[in-house]
Write a structure and sequence with these properties.
Length: about 220
């Protein structure tokens, strides 16, 4: 009833070897075979157990990998959707259209991703993970656009997602984008590595301020 195998270890681990030995008398009792009458039966059972355990472990590890891939795909889908909403917002709002080219330069890779909170599967919360390389100036600029997007009802393929997204203190592992304006990069992040200013190949500063008429 309490029989367990260790899927994090192979058949040679002490735990799984013990599990194999426990299986031998169980198998002989169920099959009616005797180890005395069949001397090689013990080795055959252990060998079959080891092969079966390997198969179970392979399937288990594949399921973990598959689940991880699916989570990454869903996260990318949400991030891409957020970017498309942001782009649509800027392209259709008269006070934001001047920023369209810059929004496209940031692209999906310059969009903060998130983590799902599964405590409430019916009303999931997604914690936004901050891009550590991005400056507060650029981050606030994008968030202002996103707020407008969340308040706007769209027709067609782009819709506001019916989910709660909250800003968390977690940092995203998404890599930096090179070639953005210098003030798009966090100064502290740049200073931590003397090679970063050269690697990012930063362009001239950009005016991340929104139109005063828009901010009224």
């Amino acid at each position: 009833e309490n029989y367990r195998i260790d899927l994090d270890s192979n058949h040679k681990s002490a735990w799984n070897q013990s599990a194999g030995r426990v299986l031998v008398p169980y198998f002989t009792d169920k099959s009616g075979l005797s180890l005395k009458d069949h001397p090689s039966l013990y080795t055959m059972i252990i060998s079959a157990f080891s092969s079966h355990l390997k198969s179970i472990r392979d399937n288990y590890r594949y399921s973990l990998t598959s689940a991880h891939i699916q989570r990454r795909k869903r996260r990318y889908t949400r991030t891409n959707k957020l970017f498309q909403v942001r782009r649509h917002t800027v392209a259709t709002h008269p006070y934001l259209q001047s920023h369209l080219a810059m929004v496209e330069r940031f692209g999906v890779e310059g969009t903060s991703d998130d983590e799902s909170d599964h405590d409430d599967p019916h009303h999931p919360r997604y914690d936004i993970r901050h891009l550590s390389w991005m400056s507060k100036e650029a981050t606030n600029w994008k968030r202002t656009i996103d707020k407008i997007g969340s308040l706007t009802k769209y027709q067609g393929k782009v819709h506001r997602a019916e989910r709660q997204r909250t800003i968390s203190g977690k940092k995203s592992t998404r890599p930096y984008i090179s070639g953005l304006p210098l003030n798009a990069y966090d100064k502290e992040w740049l200073s931590k590595d003397p090679m970063r200013p050269k690697l990012v190949r930063a362009a001239a500063n950009y005016d991340f301020a929104h139109d005063p008429e828009f901010m009224r």
